[in-house]
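Q: I have two molecules that I believe assemble together. Could you output structure tokens for the complex as a whole instead of separate predictions?
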Amino acid sequence: MNFDLTEEQQMIMDQTAKFVAQETPVSRFRKLRETERGWEPEMWARMAEQGWLGIAIPEAQGGFGGSFVDLAIILEQLGRGLVPEPFIASVVLAGGILSDQADEKQCEAYLTPMMEGQTSLAFAYSETQSRYNLSDCLTRAEKVGDGWKISGEKVWVLNGHAADQIIVAARTGGDQLDESGLSLFVVDGDAQGLECIRVPGMDGQRTAVLRFTDVEVSADRLLGREGDAFATIEKAVDRGAAAACAEGLGQVRELFERTVAYLKEREQFGVPIGSFQALQHIASDMYAEMELCNSASILASIQADHPDSEIRKAEISAAKLQLSDGGWFIQKNAIQLFGGIGVTDEQDEGLFFKRLRVLNGLFGDADWHVSRFQSLKAFEAVV
Amino acid sequence: MELSYTPEQDQFRDEVRSWIAESMPATMKKHAEDGANFEHTEVMEWHKILYAKGWAAPGWPEEVGGTGWDVSQRAIFQEECVRANAPSLSPFGLSMVGPLIIQYGNEEQKKRFLPAILAGEEIWCQGYSEPNAGSDLANLQLRAESDGDDYILNGQKTWTTYAQYADWIFVLCRTSAEGKKQEGISFLLADIHNTDGIDVKPFLTTGGTLAFSETWFKDARVPKANRVGPENGGWSMAKALLGHERTGIGGITESERGLTQVKKNAQRTAVGNSTLFDDPTFRARIARKQMRLRAIEIFNLRALAAAQVGHAPGAESSVLKIVGTELQQEVTELSMDALGQNAMGWLDSPEEALPSHQQAIASQFNYLRAATIYGGSNEIQKNIISKHLLRLPSA
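A: Yes, here they are, computed for all two components at once.
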């Protein structure tokens, strides 16, 4: 048991914090949220230069051989700056799947250019009827000759509007709700038959609806074993939840720190409002929840790649619940303590509030994680 | 960062687990199984069993009888004690005055007091609060007048937990009325049985047990040799001690135990053809508490790990006190809800109406309303966080 950052990790944190503050503060996101793409390939390439995009990929695959903790350290800082580049979609979700499932050639073709910042990726798994049920999949892939033909529709695909390649979950067997019969394919963003509807979101970021109509891919686009992808999808989404805990922690910290600073500076009745005990106690409760969000993110980042999937699920769910509940406590009270200006678009607090609420609903919301937690074998066992 | 245990640590866990299973007497096991209130005699019996093994004070330095375990081993030991539902030892000697004497006491005091605390031969209680010094602790009025080599004590302490079982009491008393009220306070150790003029009167709590007492001092003579630290220098030590107290005061282990108990009770409670444990609404409520507890546990482990490398417990103790005791109470609320109509029962309800494994639940539910009050109320903890950590301006 050990909660210390290594010297190297401490360095990553300091460098990321500095980079975000200097190169991509919230003001940059403000400008980008008005643009079509919502993020910049030039910045993506610079993030690759920093070594961030391949940090948790094994050295054998051309990465730096780090762990999920390294990803979490970076994500927390990106969260502080509301950095809109597709780190979760491309590095955590798609990058993680490729690293786990892709063969050498597939790694070279899709993972290497992404790590070098030349391309970005997406992972398309949700459908309009599926909510958080990862086995609920109507998108189908039929065998045609040596290859596959994919048809169906995916929604809320992070970076789906800009990705060079999309990993899509499609049914190659079984019925709509079956866990078996799911497969993963790599589809090019400009493939014939793929229609992309850009979806602006509450948080100022972009996602996409991707409509696949008889999209043909060759046999070497199948990742891993045919019909056997459910566990991989579950794992990818758990990694997404752990990433949400880390990025969300960055926003939680920003909201908390900004609120405390405001309590000291804003005067009413001739005194700083932070001298009022009613507000001090809310701020103290916010501090406590922030510390628990921090603990939850640490828990999630340590356990994200746990080999025992039951343990991984329990820990990730506990962490995500804390981000949802504790994060909500902090975000709603931050706005309350800022008063009227907290609901103006001009103030950054509202931007953090929105992003945090989006993360809250991504990769399983609080109720879904509670529901999953209580369905695990470990919950039954009373020692 | 790493959460998992090494093979050596796993082996250590196995050793602790089988030792507890072998060492716990049968009647104690039955009470543990029922989640009952342990009798004082049982707590002391368990203390002596642990002492004989050398495990009574895992957190103390090795040279004064600690185990020399690192943070992980201590956490493992604690987990296994909870899983076995073993009695919690009285904290006043082992976790409070003991560490204070280790830190601030002179050599004679260490020799005189520590071995008896460790062995459970002398039982301690805490004399901090007074009728007019609760949250405003520094307002305490128990007078200690200098008289040659002694102090003469006059006044009253209250909320002296389990004072009726104690041999010794550590008190904060006023040795000077000069200056700020925090500056005239000293820390004394008083022998309850062998000092004339100390009178202990236990009173009933809403939990139906005699958990607290009032302790009166009338011309009680305490040797100056029993003062820990300098005269008028007691306040800062008292605060340090509250820090020690709070690391255990979050009630994390108790909440864990409580959740296991709720699950067991829910599994044993029939609802139609199924059980309460299979009721999705109730199950989700248990799950939420267990998940929240996990985040608090990690927070606590981080604090322990920091303490291991010499970082003094600061605001994290306050956070732990707040979130831990709130959860602890919520778990007792769940326990009560699991009872359904049986929640009408009480400690002396007959077995026909209330099975023995449910008998103590209402008592614990009532008693633990104190958890957010004792050890510095949760509101006081928020004041501490606001002032010392967030540095918010005073009114």
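A: One point stands out. The first helix of chain A runs from residue 7 to 23.
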